[in-house]
Amino acid sequence: MSAFNSPPFVLATLGYYSPPADGGKPYQKGVVDPSTGIRSLERNWFPIDVPGIAIENARGREHEVSLDKTGFAFFHHVSKHTSFENEDNVKTAYYLESAELLKKLTGANRVEIFDHTVRKSNLGPGVENLIYGPVSMVHIDQSNDASVARVHLHMPAADVPKLLSKRFQIINLWRPIHHTALDYPLALCDSRSVDPTDIVPVKLIFPDRVGELLSVKHSEKHKWWYLRGMTPDDIVLIKCYDSVQDGSVAVATPHTAFYDPTAPDGAIPRESIELRALVFYD
């Protein structure tokens, strides 16, 4: 079965929020072993697997979703940048190309890409590599407070008041690299199907600051999508925050990697890159 000749949906298991056993507030902290440089994740809560989640295949139905309607959008874009091993090259050539692309696709007048992650999967079903591999946990990258803090952290102090006085967003740009992503694809939840009571803030503890992501409790109302067989020429924009919160547009989109039981045997382990960008409008 090809990526483009595929069923309209897949049934999969997704990792949803489960509260800490000790009743405390959830947190997670990145830890680096100073003797080895190996990174690990310390946290007081763990996702719970919820099986049988229907994930709609958007292939051929891309027009049914959009950043302001569902909180995410799929596009075709051939990047001039094809090598992602060199960090400096990614932060110059690929950042510049992607910032211009985001302006074109959103109508924004200013875009600041503040970080990126290259992910590689060589793990089996149900196994999660929390640092280097696909993240099999339903989440939104930033809370409201963390999104505003990102503006203060990454933009010139003199510009911040004006930037915060107008509409701004945090948008991730995600694409596979090197080959088609049939292994551990990305699922995206229609923002309209998420109730505010489903959202749980989780403290992110860094050596120099404290951030906050949003985890998500399971609900039968959630409507999930993915684009089967995304190639390096397919991208998805994921809205993680929007300062417009009057109900007229999607504010944020829960998303997660998932094990696709219909992926062909021997599918090449997924490789992908995601950029996180501050997106500003006049």
UniProtKB/TrEMBL annotation:
Transmembrane segments: none annotated. It comes from the Eukaryota. InterPro entries: AsaB-like (IPR044053). GO terms for molecular function: oxidoreductase activity. Belongs to the asaB hydroxylase/desaturase family. This is Methyltransferase. It comes from Psilocybe cubensis.
